[in-house]
Amino acid sequence: MLRLLSIALLLAIWWTAALFVDGAKLPSPPVVLHVIIAEAASGALFLHLGATLARVALAFVLAMSLGSAIGYLMGRVKLADRLGDPWLILLLNLPALVVIVLAYIWAGLTEAAAIAAIAINKLPTAVVTLREGTRALDRSLDEMATVFAMPRWRAFRHVVLPQLAPYIAASARSGLSLVWKIVLVAELLGRPNGVGFEIGVAFQLFDTPRLLAYSLTFAAVVLVIETALVQPFEARATRWRPRAA
To answer: What's this model's pTM, rounded to 2 decimal places?
Structure first.
């Protein structure tokens, strides 16, 4: 309910501001809604949204899979941590724009280059979060699994994974918010479709209604995914933890 009220308040402020600003710079909500409906009717809106969501899904799964495995390894093996830490620091501090541009230069303006660049920008945050989660594992539970001669996979599934679940959820949530931003930059610079591409075209044409139409539709999709998928997953992953009074 509060979310709906905040959105209604934002719309009211936007509509009021549009009355005092040039329509070419800040169109009113009905004007933007008309563009959204027109783009949806032509099918272009769904085409570009689908392309962007596909890139987000592929890059996110790739980064989370590799990042979780590398983070777990670095948290368990000191040698791996020492070898990987300099690279981790480099990737954490390397601007996303540099990674995207280099990926396009080295691999060409291809889909693989775009997805790889997005995944590489997300990768270090997943590694750091899972490494810290692995370091925080309860060693006494590992000893218990050893005493009871639990197979490695069963021990990982029933002893290690539940402890890592909150860290995986946190990494997924923060990483997804990062991927949402980076994918638009990658599309703006080197893809022939997607929300980022359409935003770039609208910018070149100084078409503010179109720019806002694609930006707000993208934001709405992000909000729905966050509410319907990410938050329930995070709540389920942390349900075993005691809640503060």
So the answer is: 0.87
